[in-house]
Amino acid sequence: MLFRRRARMLRWLVCGRVGPVWMWKALLLFVAIAFAGQLLGVIFNKSVQPAARSIFSSPDAQGPSLGSCQPHTHIMFLKTHKTASSTVLNMLYRFGEERDLHFALPLGYQLGYPLPFNAHRVKGYRGPRAVEFHIMGNHMRFNKLEVEKVMPADTFYFSIIRDPVALAESSFAYYKEVAPAFRKTKGLGDFADNPHKYYDPRLRNNHYARNLLWFDFGLDHNANFSISLAQRGQAMIHQAFKLILVSEYFDQSMILLRHALCWPLDAVVSFSLNARQQKPSGIGGISGSWVGKAAAAAGVGGRGARSQAKALPNLSLTEEQREKLRQWNALDWYLYKAFNKTFWEEIDRFGHTQMEQEVALLRTRREDLARVCLRDGGKPVEAHRIRDKNIRPFQSGLIKILGYELQPGLDNATRTACLRMIRPEIQYKDVLDAKQFPRAPAIPAQPGQQVPMVAAAGSFLRQDLSRTGERLIGGEAGGRTMEADWDGSRLIRGNRTLIRGQEKGRLR
């Protein structure tokens, strides 16, 4: 009885004081709907929320204001050897690819080097200025008259130089197995003591052993030194090129280049490419110097390399031997002193305070991009440790060329931009070539039919990783020009088609 009375009282309190049951049910339904709506809203917002902004689209990518100038898009870069020029070429490749510019690409990987440049070495060339090319930057031996057939009249010409002693050290390490003058020596010091003992100007590839800058600028590197000759060479270069950068002051060079071209900061921010491996201790007693980058021995070449390891080049030099190298490369030494002087005159006009500020910004930006783009904080790694074979640097010589690995988990836009910054020169040229000259589908061979190795529009169907250029080996024969790569395999030019002969069944 007492229980029934309490139950009636509870129903009276609930229904009379608080409200009827149907109202509670409606309230609970409303709360459930509201909660579900909020949950769905969060999910919806996440699905339509734009991706986080890439570091490459941040305001820092532009750098300090350049005023109202317009970016240069017609550019000719003379890519000199062993001067950090591969890093500069990567900048040009990136800038052009991002803006769909047209590159003056070589038929192979160099523009006829070491022969003087000829306009017909450019893929797709159809006569003087018949096609608009924006950027030219692969290795060539400079020939201004021929370059002017390819590039527009308003083209910005620039190049980069390096201290001839440092250049000789790098050239010796890189071309030890290529240049006969280097191959015969016990070490660079041995060569410096008596270069005439080893150097024969008639032998192919010996240009790497003497006045290499002078040679790349299209001048006679075997000429006897005289002040008048050196001055004429300097004047020719000064007239042809609007800016000569200095490898030893790379960051300052990039700031001058940025202002000259009116480019955003990110366009001149780079990671060092084609760098040699750093040994824990210096080679030949030069501890801590860039010479110590020569690494544990590696076989020469790429897939067709010899497997056996060889001793690293001996790069040790006394101060007396360094002076002998300056004398041996006297024309290069004159150029270096002259253009180093004009370089610092440019910085004087630019302003030392402003230069220091902008160099600091560039270095900070490089560190930021390395932290985002590169695995292990941007530490270079040996090629065989790079998982993606498409970004493994080509190995040439007795030293190991290092590369980079991308940071995992990058969004698509960031990954694309980071990949461009670390893509090696050879692979990048192939990417650009494929974009400019899409290949036609391969035609299956009929049974018993022999198909020659032919490239559409002058592009080899087989990679040619020659780093020492092509040379003319014969005259006209039936309207076809006979040429050869450095390994002797022949190239037969007929109109726009190149046929590769004497195939060796391997990739170099």
Structural commentary:
- This protein is of the alpha/beta class.
- Helices cover 39% and strands 9% of the residues.
- It has 16 helices and eleven strands.
- The strands form three sheets. Strands 7-11-10-9-8 form a five-stranded antiparallel beta sheet, with no helix packed on it. A four-stranded parallel beta sheet has the order 2-1-3-4. A two-stranded antiparallel sheet has the order 5-6.
- A hairpin with a 2-residue loop joins strand 10 and strand 11.
- Helix 3 packs parallel to helix 16 and helix 12 crosses helix 13.
- The longest helix is centred in the N-terminal third of the chain and has 28 residues.
- The termini are far apart.
- The C terminus is likely disordered.
What does the secondary structure layout of this molecule look like, with pairings?
Layout (H helix, E strand, L loop, with lengths): L1 H17 L2 H28 L26 E4 L6 H14 L36 E2 L7 H7 L5 E6 L2 H12 L4 H4 L4 H6 L1 H4 L13 H5 L10 H14 L2 E4 L3 H12 L57 H10 L1 H21 L1 H22 L7 E2 L19 E2 L8 H11 L2 H12 L16 E3 L14 E8 L2 E6 L4 E5 L2 E4 L8
Parallel strand pairs: 1-2, 1-3, 3-4
Antiparallel strand pairs: 5-6, 7-11, 8-9, 9-10, 10-11
Helix pairs in contact: 3-16, 12-13
